[in-house]
Amino acid sequence: MRGLIANPILKKELRTLLRERRSFLIPALYALILALAIVPSLVTDFGGEAAEQGSRLAGAVAVIQFFAVLLFAPLVGAGGISGERERGTFTRLLASSLPRYQIALGKLAVGVAYVFVLLFVSAPMLTIAYQLGGVEFSVLSGLYVTHGLLGVWLVSLGLWVSSYFDRTWSSSMVAVAVPGALILVNIAVIFGLGQDGGAISASTQWLAVLNPGFSMVLLFGGAEPLDMPAREAWTAHFLALAAFLLLTTLLLARRLSRLRS
User: Fold this and answer.
1) Are 117 and 76 in contact (CB under 8 A)?
2) Per the structure, how many domains does the chain have?
3) Closest CA to 118 of 162, 71, 82, 180
């Protein structure tokens, strides 16, 4: 931890991030989108049951937050290396005495910190949902852990993708397309191999756990479609995302160790 704080790449990226207007505009825009999507539905049903309002509030925030992480996390990572190439600083960065793993670690840490800022924006609204009694604390905790792991993995994925491109727009498009394609292919395979008209079968439920959007299934439908308890389903999903993160981080480290320009 001490070595990470002293990381010069981390300090440089943080200074750059704090000087950019978009670093403040994106969280503000995200908060505005949450407010516009949630407040009207609560106002129109002001006299309804508190638990029902809380459940609807938590569901709306969870969906918006999932798509926000799915979009912004890979974009944050996608400019890490390709942006250095565009500015003509990547060769000098590789030629410095700084170990390659510190370059990757510093850029990954800044991207993860930015994603966590986005996650904290929704915390007050989910706290209200919990106080209304519409959702359990364990479910909210599982949702944040899932979105946190998903965000870290997608930042790492974006960095790995950016190492193959010289332009940020190219790496951004690929970094966003990869998790989206993974979700769609996973769903197609699950229902293609499913039983009883496409229902999730015992033989394909492990594929569902690998889907980056599986937390939405657990939040809205619970573990009923699966032949396992809810706690085991959440744990299996956490492990799947952690495995994705480990694989992508190893690929990123291997890629940086071989880069010369």
Assistant:
1) no
2) 1
3) 71
